[in-house]
Design goal:
There is one protein chain. A hairpin with a 2-residue loop joins strand 6 and strand 7. Strands 1-3-2 form a 3-stranded antiparallel sheet, with helices on one face. It has a 3-stranded antiparallel sheet with strand order 4-6-7. The chain has a two-stranded antiparallel sheet with strand order 5-8. The chain is α+β, with helices and mostly antiparallel strands. Helix content is 52%, strand content 15%. The model has no long low-confidence stretch (mean pLDDT 93).
């Protein structure tokens, strides 16, 4: 059979410089990412040619995975995140984790206000919770991690991790956010969250870290709310009464969990 490749094209000059750079840095650390075979420009297009990794997004095949496979995938993913965390990345001197959280909340607030499908009071609630764990959030260092491997970008083949794709940047901060994003994405897809439990078993969060994890889940829940009905390039994020109800229900479940954390 002919060998497969991935070709990415963009009209933006130097569109893939950062992507190629990250992929090269990650592959040196034995992270299963595509190999950069070639990059450059052709006329007014930038291009990137990558090796092909077989597999499907974990969200696509999640229902087919058994508990042992989920556990093994979680073990491998946390090991990958730990390898990424040892990378040396320069950050702005004025970097703070709270700035990232504020940005996410402000964006969600603006979108929710514009779309008028959800209650902006939820953002005010989150701002209060942020103050409750301010000391923890203030202490978060700019640690590198893969922030966009939730139900997508993590490829599974034969019940195992085959690769990680679509790395155009790397997150800096608290690795627990990727587990929180995964949990909200699974809940939103009406799937079980066993895999996230397995991730947490590998990460071993203490009481305050777990509380922060629940806060991040709430944060991504309002982020999902803000996206409903929005147009991104050629894709509109669907919204209807059922979707609105589900996200509101998820928010309520997470708030109850936060309140339980406060009783510990």
């Amino acid at each position: 059979a002919a060998e497969k490749f991935i070709l990415r094209c963009s009209k933006e000059r130097g569109a893939y410089e950062a992507t190629a750079d990250w992929l090269n840095k990650l592959s040196v650390r034995e992270i299963p990412v595509p190999v950069v075979l070639s990059k450059g420009t052709d006329g007014d297009h930038s291009f990137l040619i990558l090796s092909y990794i077989p597999g499907d997004d974990i969200g696509t095949v999640y229902d087919e995975l058994n508990d042992d496979e989920k556990k093994q995938i979680a073990k491998e993913v946390v090991a990958i995140q730990r390898r990424v965390s040892r990378m040396d990345i320069a950050t702005d001197r004025d970097w703070t984790w709270n700035d990232f959280i504020d940005e996410l909340m402000d964006r969600a607030h603006a979108r929710i206000k514009r779309n008028r499908r959800f209650d902006t009071d939820k953002i005010h609630t989150l701002k209060k919770l942020q103050q409750e764990i301010k000391e923890y959030l203030d202490a978060v260092r700019p640690t590198p991690y893969l922030d966009d491997i939730s139900t997508k970008n993590l490829l599974i083949y034969g019940g195992k991790v085959s690769g990680i794709i679509d790395i155009d940047w790397i997150g800096l901060g608290d690795m627990l956010t990727f587990a929180a994003l995964t949990r909200v994405a699974l809940l939103n897809m009406d799937l079980d969250t066993k895999y996230v439990d397995d991730l947490l078993d590998e990460i071993h969060p203490n009481a305050i870290e777990y509380k922060a994890f629940v806060f991040y889940c709430l944060l991504y829940c309002v982020d999902f709310m803000g996206e409903r009905g929005m147009q991104f390039l050629d894709k509109e994020i669907p919204v209807n009464e059922g979707i609105v109800k589900r996200l509101n229900d998820i928010f309520d479940i997470l708030m109850r969990e936060w309140n339980r954390c406060c009783e510990w």
